[in-house]
UniProtKB/TrEMBL annotation:
<dbReference type="Pfam" id="PF00078">
    <property type="entry name" value="RVT_1"/>
</dbReference>
<dbReference type="InterPro" id="IPR000477">
    <property type="entry name" value="RT_dom"/>
</dbReference>
<protein>
    <recommendedName>
        <fullName>Reverse transcriptase domain-containing protein</fullName>
    </recommendedName>
</protein>
<dbReference type="InterPro" id="IPR043502">
    <property type="entry name" value="DNA/RNA_pol_sf"/>
</dbReference>
<keyword id="KW-0614">Plasmid</keyword>
<dbReference type="InterPro" id="IPR051083">
    <property type="entry name" value="GrpII_Intron_Splice-Mob/Def"/>
</dbReference>
<comment type="similarity">
    <text>Belongs to the bacterial reverse transcriptase family.</text>
</comment>
<feature type="domain" description="Reverse transcriptase">
    <location>
        <begin position="1"/>
        <end position="208"/>
    </location>
</feature>
Length: 276
């Protein structure tokens, strides 16, 4: 992998040739690695809009009073390479695929003429990474799915579950912490919400309460910032004001279509959020 400088800082990027090979590997192993049905970021699981609305239906049913919503801080960056190697050994028998997967896991990064192999983590930005990320937490997905009357779903490293009682919530949080500790992970403090559903929580860009479904405040702020950056970048590239506005309007149109899946039907198409 090579280091490229992006707006958010240096980013490790696969070469085009590597990405093509890893895409082929992903196609070969996608039916070999264990991926739970409630791990929803894998292709063919219905999309995030369907997931959000399904979760909201549970929340508005008034059957569940408590929620745990969290994600893993730096999930891909903290994946243990040995855990991926063991996963491959258990489920992939072909020696060629095994060798390519081991090269993927033990990747090296070139920066300024120097090469190093990170001790932890797997590379992102290729078709194989979401599949590995899904399969590694299969046991956790199976555990929470097996708990009666606890709706559970995961998207990448985002988790959400609902419970009827505070006692049940505490038990689920305890189990979640134990799974995280075993794999060397921890909850992201700024993206964790544990408590009553009536106070609302955000998930996948939606703000969810028993009374309503709308776009989350964080998603609205991210949209505003991206709109400004897009306009400024277009102007720096020499586009006129009208050309830059056209570019921004195209992005806003795409975002609005996405936002429609984060709103209850009675809200129509006006952008809204909690507190507005």
């Amino acid at each position: 992998m090579q280091i490229w400088h992006a707006q958010g800082g240096p980013v490790a990027v696969w070469s085009a040739a590597d990405a093509l090979v890893l895409k082929w590997v992903a196609l070969q192993v996608q039916d070999l690695l264990p991926v739970h049905l409630n791990c929803m970021h894998v292709q063919g699981r219905g999309g995030t809009g369907t997931m959000v609305r399904s979760l909201w239906e549970h929340v508005r049913s008034d059957r569940y009073g408590f929620v745990c919503r969290t994600d893993i801080r730096g999930y891909y960056r903290h994946i243990r390479k040995d855990a991926v190697s063991r996963l491959v050994e258990r489920h992939v028998g072909d020696p060629v695929l095994r060798d390519l997967l081991e090269q993927y896991v033990r990747y090296s990064v070139e920066y300024g003429g120097e090469f190093r192999t990170p001790a932890e983590g797997i590379g992102r930005g290729c078709a194989l990474s979401p599949l590995i990320g899904a399969a590694l937490l299969y046991d956790m997905d199976a555990h929470f799915t097996g708990i009666k009357e606890v709706p559970y779903a995961r998207y990448m490293d985002d988790f959400v579950l609902l419970t009827r009682s505070r006692w049940q919530l505490r038990r689920c949080v305890r189990d979640l912490n134990q799974f995280f500790a075993m794999d060397g992970f921890e909850k992201h403090p700024e993206k964790t919400r544990i408590g009553r559903v009536e106070k609302g929580f955000d998930w996948l860009g939606a703000w969810i309460t028993p009374a309503d479904l709308t776009v989350a405040p964080r998603a609205l702020e991210n949209h505003r910032q991206r709109t400004l950056r897009l306009y400024e970048r277009a102007r720096r590239k020499g586009l006129s004001k009208s050309e830059a506005r056209v570019l921004v309007q195209r992005y806003v149109g795409r975002w609005e279509r996405w936002a429609c899946s984060r709103r209850s039907a009675h809200r129509g198409t006006n952008v809204s959020s909690r507190g507005q």
